[in-house]
Design goal:
The structure holds two protein chains of two kinds. Chain A is α/β, with parallel strands linked by helices. Chain A is built from eight helices and six strands. Chain A folds into two domains: 68 residues, Double Stranded RNA Binding Domain; 78 residues, Arc Repressor Mutant, subunit A, CATH 1.10.10. In chain A, the strands form two sheets. A four-stranded mixed β-sheet of chain A has the order 3-2-1-4. In chain A, strands 5-6 form a two-stranded parallel ribbon. Chain A is elongated and about 85 Å long. Classes of the chains: A alpha/beta, B mainly alpha.
Chain lengths: 195, 180
């Protein structure tokens, strides 16, 4: 056996890993999510989730394909057939009553400012609204009203974290990622405003 | 650009600094196949290689979460990952001895060119001392430069070259004895 022959044979020993190894690694550390479509009391939604909780929500009407949702979600996602039963049940129950506080949410992919805005927003009870300035004050940044608006506009888990309950101080419903009409409808449904 | 860095590596480090999860997904895509492949030759089994290739990146992720931007920018990523992986391979080897190379009894991996051949190579490589096996696999199966191997095993380049040379000589001798 000469040296070159041996070296060639060794080079040929490179083997590919099983296809699911990368996915399993990324899901296990929480650097990638599963995604699936689920039917809820508020319509059909795309939901992405990690081992820690829900990481993304978009109505099917605003992301009609898997690719559209994946690019909107901006984290590595793998398609699943359906949500885990306990998660689907928590989402359905939460969206039916409006009280989504029992739905596990994973906000590790957002900035710390955005996380504090969203966790404060999550405390607004169903059937009520708060102005943007209230959140700014609650998080100790009363001057950051505009930044609060931006953080809410980028809420990765709308409906679950009820950013639709944050309105303008003049009483107008204000902006919403899925349009002011949907925000208006959600607030009517929850009894926060009159039809 | 220092030893062991490449344009691809610099791009991944930039991604890690910008957003850990996005950068980490790129890191796994770029380096996990090599770690798996090398671990398979160092541990001798696909099952151990999968565990090592997964655990290496779980540890890397935990470390990266704690590292500041400067520390990430200064990393020689591949060498760093191999340092983690080699430690895991060694731990496994201690737990498993005496090693019994599998002949793909329950393989769920990618198509295998020749399982019997894989088992034969596991057997041959298992006969080399640790340092020689690691140096030969990193240099000749995975094509890592001597300087990077030296960093991984924390031995001088001259010693790594000697390990490779002795390892190859030993493999030749093992294979010659198989022919007789």
């Amino acid at each position: 056996m000469n040296t070159n022959m041996l070296e060639l044979q060794l080079r040929g020993l490179d083997r590919h890993p099983p296809e699911d190894l990368e996915r399993s690694t990324l899901i296990t550390v929480g650097a990638a999510d599963w995604m699936a479509i689920t039917d809820t009391p508020l319509g059909v939604l795309w939901v992405a989730w990690s081992t820690r909780g829900v990481t993304g929500v978009t109505p099917l009407a605003f992301a009609d394909t898997e690719d559209a949702f994946a690019s909107h979600h901006r984290r590595r996602t793998y398609r699943a057939d359906h949500l885990p039963a306990d998660l689907a049940s928590a989402i359905t129950t939460g969206l039916e009553s409006g009280d989504t506080t029992e739905v596990p949410v994973d906000l590790s992919g957002v900035t710390s400012f955005q996380r504090s805005v969203l966790t404060t927003c999550a405390t607004i009870p169903v059937g009520t609204v708060r102005p943007y300035g209230w959140i700014a004050s609650e998080i100790g940044s009363p001057g950051a009203v505009r930044a609060v608006g931006t953080a809410l506009g980028r809420n990765p888990v709308p409906l679950i974290i009820p950013c639709h309950r944050v309105v303008r101080s003049d009483g107008a419903v204000g902006n919403y990622a899925f349009g002011p009409d949907m925000k208006h409808e959600l607030l009517i449904r929850e009894g926060a405003i009159l039809a | 650009m220092g030893t062991g860095t490449s344009p691809g590596e610099d791009r991944i480090k930039d991604s890690l600094v910008a957003e850990l999860d996005t950068g980490f997904a790129e890191l796994v895509s770029a380096y996990q196949p090599g770690i798996y492949s090398g671990a398979m030759r160092l541990t001798g089994t696909r099952e151990d290689a999968q565990d090592v290739a997964q655990d290496t990146f779980l540890r890397a992720y935990t470390a990266l979460e704690a590292y500041g931007d400067d520390r990430i920018e200064a990393l020689h990523i591949r060498a760093w990952l191999w340092t983690i992986a080699i430690n895991l391979c060694r731990t496994r080897a201690k737990q498993r001895r005496p090693s019994v190379p599998l002949v793909d009894g329950h393989d769920t991996g990618a198509a295998d060119p020749d399982p019997m051949d894989d088992a034969a190579w596991s057997e041959r490589l298992s006969k080399l001392p640790d340092n020689q096996r690691i140096a030969v696999v990193l240099r000749h199966v995975l094509d890592l430069p001597i300087s990077e191997i030296s960093e991984v095993v924390e031995r001088p380049e001259g010693t790594v070259k000697a390990d490779i040379s002795r390892g190859l000589a030993r493999l030749r001798s093992i294979m010659d004895s198989e022919v007789r």
